[in-house]
């Protein structure tokens, strides 16, 4: 098979494995909807959004990290983009808030579309950005594809490392929990044995005092 065709097939396969998410939903007036996602350190995030416009009603969005720091924010949105990056492993939250302009207006349902890309996918190897990256690295078109392939491969390797790290952490947590349960059960059993022994001794003394037994 032609190497270029093989490379194209591999690029398509890796693109399917790339990290990203898009969602579309209908939002009730005067309501709030939030989306959360985990991010590795030094990860770029890009997103696009579209909101149907309705008179006397607006939608705002705000993006925060786990420490409540605002990463991006905008009011009365219709369509646009946002970009931010995180230095450390964190969980970011993007919230959309629907507001009716006055209390007498009940509002109407608005359709919202959000497309979020992270990591390598956020670099967007298409159009003018490709030209910029190619110019920065002085790459030919085929070399540009190889560069993209390398970035995707590194992203997949990092993802597997993170999965292995989480699996190790979960295993350690399970081992720790199992040991705690074992020692707690042993402690409860010893307490029951001690309590049963004390009850037997107490009853023997009580019955002897009442001269019910010898």
From TrEMBL:
Pfam families: EMP24_GP25L (PF01105). One of its GO terms (cellular component) is membrane. The chain crosses the membrane at residues 181-203. Residues 1-22 form the signal peptide. The keyword Ligase does not apply. It is found in: Membrane. The keyword Signal applies. It comes from Aphis craccivora. Residues 32-118 form the GOLD domain. The lineage of its organism: Eukaryota, Metazoa, Ecdysozoa, Arthropoda, Hexapoda. This is Transmembrane emp24 domain-containing protein bai-like. It comes from the Eukaryota. Belongs to the EMP24/GP25L family. Keywords: Developmental protein, Membrane, Signal, Transmembrane, Transmembrane helix. It is a single-pass type I membrane protein.
